[in-house]
Amino acid sequence: MKALITGANKGIGFAIAEALGKSGVGILVGARSESHGQEAVKKLSAQGIPASFVKIDLNDFDTIHNAAEEIDQLDLLINNAGIPDSHKADRPDLDTKKTAFDYTTDDLRETLEVNFLGTHEMIRSFLPKLAANGKIVNITIPIQPTNHWHPLAYQTSKAAQNVMAMNYALEFKNTGSSKQIFGVMPGGVATDLNGHTAGAMDGYIKSAEEAGEFIAQLALDTENHNGQMIQHDGKIVTDYEAQIHG
Protein backbone atom coordinates (compact mmCIF):
# COMPACT_ATOMS: atom_id res chain seq x y z
CA MET A 1 0.00 0.00 0.00
CA LYS A 2 1.02 3.58 -0.61
CA ALA A 3 -0.15 6.72 1.21
CA LEU A 4 0.35 10.38 0.42
CA ILE A 5 0.06 12.59 3.50
CA THR A 6 0.10 16.36 3.18
CA GLY A 7 1.85 18.30 5.92
CA ALA A 8 3.65 15.09 6.89
CA ASN A 9 6.92 16.74 7.90
CA LYS A 10 5.73 17.44 11.47
CA GLY A 11 2.92 17.21 14.01
CA ILE A 12 -0.12 15.10 13.26
CA GLY A 13 0.95 14.48 9.68
CA PHE A 14 4.29 12.98 10.69
CA ALA A 15 2.60 10.91 13.41
CA ILE A 16 0.15 9.51 10.83
CA ALA A 17 3.09 8.67 8.56
CA GLU A 18 4.83 6.82 11.41
CA ALA A 19 1.71 4.87 12.37
CA LEU A 20 0.89 3.89 8.78
CA GLY A 21 4.51 3.09 8.03
CA LYS A 22 4.77 0.74 11.00
CA SER A 23 1.80 -1.12 9.50
CA GLY A 24 3.70 -1.67 6.27
CA VAL A 25 2.40 1.26 4.22
CA GLY A 26 4.83 3.09 1.95
CA ILE A 27 4.82 6.81 2.75
CA LEU A 28 4.92 9.83 0.47
CA VAL A 29 5.77 12.83 2.65
CA GLY A 30 3.93 15.82 1.24
CA ALA A 31 5.40 19.14 2.40
CA ARG A 32 6.04 22.69 1.19
CA SER A 33 9.65 22.72 2.34
CA GLU A 34 11.98 20.21 0.72
CA SER A 35 14.49 20.45 3.57
CA HIS A 36 11.83 19.77 6.20
CA GLY A 37 10.26 17.07 4.08
CA GLN A 38 13.57 15.31 3.49
CA GLU A 39 14.34 15.46 7.22
CA ALA A 40 11.03 13.69 7.88
CA VAL A 41 11.94 11.08 5.26
CA LYS A 42 15.25 10.44 7.07
CA LYS A 43 13.46 9.97 10.40
CA LEU A 44 10.98 7.53 8.88
CA SER A 45 13.67 5.64 6.96
CA ALA A 46 15.67 5.27 10.19
CA GLN A 47 12.69 3.32 11.54
CA GLY A 48 12.66 1.03 8.51
CA ILE A 49 9.69 2.81 6.93
CA PRO A 50 9.93 3.26 3.14
CA ALA A 51 9.37 6.96 2.51
CA SER A 52 10.04 9.64 -0.07
CA PHE A 53 9.46 13.37 -0.35
CA VAL A 54 6.82 14.97 -2.57
CA LYS A 55 6.61 18.75 -2.82
CA ILE A 56 3.03 19.79 -2.05
CA ASP A 57 2.01 23.39 -1.39
CA LEU A 58 -1.75 23.81 -1.12
CA ASN A 59 -1.35 27.44 -2.14
CA ASP A 60 0.55 26.50 -5.31
CA PHE A 61 -1.54 24.29 -7.56
CA ASP A 62 1.42 23.64 -9.88
CA THR A 63 3.06 21.60 -7.13
CA ILE A 64 -0.11 19.54 -6.78
CA HIS A 65 -0.38 18.92 -10.51
CA ASN A 66 3.31 18.05 -10.83
CA ALA A 67 3.04 15.56 -7.97
CA ALA A 68 -0.06 13.96 -9.50
CA GLU A 69 1.80 13.45 -12.77
CA GLU A 70 4.69 11.71 -11.01
CA ILE A 71 2.63 9.33 -8.85
CA ASP A 72 1.18 6.25 -10.53
CA GLN A 73 -1.24 4.97 -7.89
CA LEU A 74 -2.32 5.70 -4.34
CA ASP A 75 -4.22 3.64 -1.80
CA LEU A 76 -4.59 6.44 0.74
CA LEU A 77 -4.73 10.21 0.37
CA ILE A 78 -4.54 11.88 3.78
CA ASN A 79 -5.40 15.58 3.57
CA ASN A 80 -3.79 16.87 6.74
CA ALA A 81 -2.09 20.12 5.74
CA GLY A 82 -3.78 23.43 6.43
CA ILE A 83 -3.47 26.78 8.13
CA PRO A 84 -5.48 28.11 11.11
CA ASP A 85 -5.55 31.71 9.88
CA SER A 86 -3.75 34.11 7.58
CA HIS A 87 -0.18 34.54 8.76
CA LYS A 88 0.81 37.75 10.55
CA ALA A 89 4.27 38.43 11.95
CA ASP A 90 2.93 40.04 15.13
CA ARG A 91 0.39 37.33 16.06
CA PRO A 92 0.54 33.56 16.62
CA ASP A 93 -0.80 31.36 13.82
CA LEU A 94 -3.60 30.18 16.10
CA ASP A 95 -4.71 33.15 18.18
CA THR A 96 -7.35 31.88 20.60
CA LYS A 97 -8.01 35.42 21.85
CA LYS A 98 -9.05 36.61 18.40
CA THR A 99 -12.81 37.25 18.23
CA ALA A 100 -15.10 36.94 15.25
CA PHE A 101 -15.06 40.75 15.03
CA ASP A 102 -11.28 40.72 14.52
CA TYR A 103 -11.27 38.69 11.30
CA THR A 104 -10.84 40.48 8.00
CA THR A 105 -12.05 39.34 4.61
CA ASP A 106 -8.41 38.69 3.70
CA ASP A 107 -8.10 36.38 6.73
CA LEU A 108 -11.05 34.36 5.50
CA ARG A 109 -9.93 34.38 1.87
CA GLU A 110 -6.40 33.16 2.59
CA THR A 111 -7.55 30.41 4.94
CA LEU A 112 -10.26 29.20 2.56
CA GLU A 113 -7.87 29.22 -0.39
CA VAL A 114 -5.47 26.89 1.40
CA ASN A 115 -7.75 24.65 3.46
CA PHE A 116 -10.72 24.36 1.13
CA LEU A 117 -9.57 25.13 -2.41
CA GLY A 118 -6.14 23.54 -1.91
CA THR A 119 -7.67 20.36 -0.50
CA HIS A 120 -10.24 20.32 -3.29
CA GLU A 121 -7.45 20.54 -5.86
CA MET A 122 -5.66 17.65 -4.13
CA ILE A 123 -8.75 15.47 -4.37
CA ARG A 124 -9.47 16.39 -8.01
CA SER A 125 -5.86 15.82 -9.04
CA PHE A 126 -5.29 12.51 -7.25
CA LEU A 127 -8.72 10.93 -7.63
CA PRO A 128 -7.74 9.34 -10.99
CA LYS A 129 -4.68 7.85 -9.26
CA LEU A 130 -6.65 6.41 -6.34
CA ALA A 131 -6.98 2.63 -6.25
CA ALA A 132 -10.42 1.11 -6.84
CA ASN A 133 -10.88 0.65 -3.09
CA GLY A 134 -8.77 3.66 -2.12
CA LYS A 135 -9.60 6.07 0.68
CA ILE A 136 -9.43 9.83 1.08
CA VAL A 137 -9.16 10.98 4.69
CA ASN A 138 -9.59 14.64 5.60
CA ILE A 139 -8.27 15.75 8.98
CA THR A 140 -10.89 18.17 10.25
CA ILE A 141 -12.43 19.79 13.34
CA PRO A 142 -15.82 20.32 14.98
CA ILE A 143 -17.45 23.44 13.59
CA GLN A 144 -19.68 24.46 16.47
CA PRO A 145 -18.30 27.65 18.07
CA THR A 146 -17.72 27.50 21.82
CA ASN A 147 -16.48 30.09 24.29
CA HIS A 148 -12.98 28.60 24.33
CA TRP A 149 -12.84 27.56 20.65
CA HIS A 150 -14.19 29.70 17.82
CA PRO A 151 -11.48 30.55 15.24
CA LEU A 152 -13.76 31.91 12.52
CA ALA A 153 -11.49 31.45 9.49
CA TYR A 154 -10.36 27.96 10.45
CA GLN A 155 -13.83 26.68 11.32
CA THR A 156 -15.35 28.20 8.18
CA SER A 157 -12.73 26.57 5.95
CA LYS A 158 -13.19 23.18 7.60
CA ALA A 159 -16.99 23.43 7.38
CA ALA A 160 -16.62 23.96 3.64
CA GLN A 161 -14.17 21.06 3.46
CA ASN A 162 -16.60 18.80 5.33
CA VAL A 163 -19.47 19.62 2.97
CA MET A 164 -17.17 18.90 0.02
CA ALA A 165 -16.28 15.49 1.49
CA MET A 166 -19.94 14.59 1.98
CA ASN A 167 -20.68 15.57 -1.62
CA TYR A 168 -17.87 13.40 -2.97
CA ALA A 169 -19.06 10.57 -0.73
CA LEU A 170 -22.54 10.82 -2.22
CA GLU A 171 -21.11 10.59 -5.74
CA PHE A 172 -19.07 7.52 -4.77
CA LYS A 173 -22.24 5.92 -3.41
CA ASN A 174 -24.43 6.87 -6.37
CA THR A 175 -21.93 5.58 -8.92
CA GLY A 176 -21.34 2.29 -7.09
CA SER A 177 -17.69 3.13 -6.44
CA SER A 178 -15.75 1.27 -3.75
CA LYS A 179 -13.73 4.40 -3.00
CA GLN A 180 -14.30 6.22 0.26
CA ILE A 181 -13.90 9.74 1.57
CA PHE A 182 -14.44 10.71 5.19
CA GLY A 183 -13.36 13.19 7.82
CA VAL A 184 -11.62 12.56 11.13
CA MET A 185 -11.79 15.03 14.01
CA PRO A 186 -8.84 14.03 16.23
CA GLY A 187 -9.76 16.53 18.94
CA GLY A 188 -7.26 18.68 20.80
CA VAL A 189 -3.74 17.63 19.80
CA ALA A 190 -0.42 18.93 21.09
CA THR A 191 1.37 20.62 18.18
CA ASP A 192 3.55 23.66 17.69
CA LEU A 193 0.38 25.74 17.34
CA ASN A 194 -0.47 25.28 21.01
CA GLY A 195 2.97 24.85 22.53
CA HIS A 196 2.80 21.02 22.56
CA THR A 197 0.52 20.98 25.60
CA ALA A 198 -0.15 17.24 25.69
CA GLY A 199 -2.12 16.13 28.73
CA ALA A 200 -3.54 19.59 29.39
CA MET A 201 -7.23 20.16 30.18
CA ASP A 202 -7.49 16.89 32.16
CA GLY A 203 -6.10 14.85 29.31
CA TYR A 204 -8.30 16.37 26.60
CA ILE A 205 -5.21 17.44 24.66
CA LYS A 206 -3.65 14.23 23.31
CA SER A 207 -0.21 13.74 21.85
CA ALA A 208 0.38 13.83 18.10
CA GLU A 209 1.39 10.16 18.30
CA GLU A 210 -1.96 9.22 19.86
CA ALA A 211 -3.82 11.16 17.18
CA GLY A 212 -1.72 9.62 14.43
CA GLU A 213 -2.42 6.08 15.61
CA PHE A 214 -6.15 6.79 15.84
CA ILE A 215 -6.28 8.19 12.31
CA ALA A 216 -4.15 5.38 10.89
CA GLN A 217 -6.42 2.73 12.43
CA LEU A 218 -9.44 4.29 10.74
CA ALA A 219 -7.59 4.56 7.43
CA LEU A 220 -6.61 0.88 7.50
CA ASP A 221 -9.68 -0.82 8.94
CA THR A 222 -12.19 -2.72 6.82
CA GLU A 223 -15.23 -0.62 7.75
CA ASN A 224 -17.05 1.52 5.21
CA HIS A 225 -16.59 5.08 6.49
CA ASN A 226 -17.68 6.77 3.27
CA GLY A 227 -19.29 10.13 4.06
CA GLN A 228 -18.70 9.90 7.80
CA MET A 229 -17.38 12.59 10.12
CA ILE A 230 -15.69 10.69 12.97
CA GLN A 231 -15.00 12.36 16.30
CA HIS A 232 -11.93 11.91 18.51
CA ASP A 233 -13.80 9.35 20.62
CA GLY A 234 -14.73 7.25 17.60
CA LYS A 235 -18.34 8.44 17.53
CA ILE A 236 -19.85 9.40 14.20
CA VAL A 237 -21.53 12.77 13.75
CA THR A 238 -24.99 11.62 12.68
CA ASP A 239 -26.61 15.04 12.35
CA TYR A 240 -24.19 17.56 10.93
CA GLU A 241 -26.65 20.45 11.09
CA ALA A 242 -27.22 19.77 14.77
CA GLN A 243 -23.50 20.23 15.33
CA ILE A 244 -23.73 23.65 13.70
CA HIS A 245 -26.65 24.80 15.85
CA GLY A 246 -25.43 23.19 19.07
TrEMBL record:
Belongs to the short-chain dehydrogenases/reductases (SDR) family. InterPro entries: NAD(P)-bd_dom_sf, SDR_fam. The keyword Oxidoreductase applies. Pfam families: adh_short. Gene3D superfamilies: NAD(P)-binding Rossmann-like Domain. This is SDR family NAD(P)-dependent oxidoreductase. Keywords: NADP, Oxidoreductase. The keyword Cytoplasm does not apply. Signal peptide: none annotated.
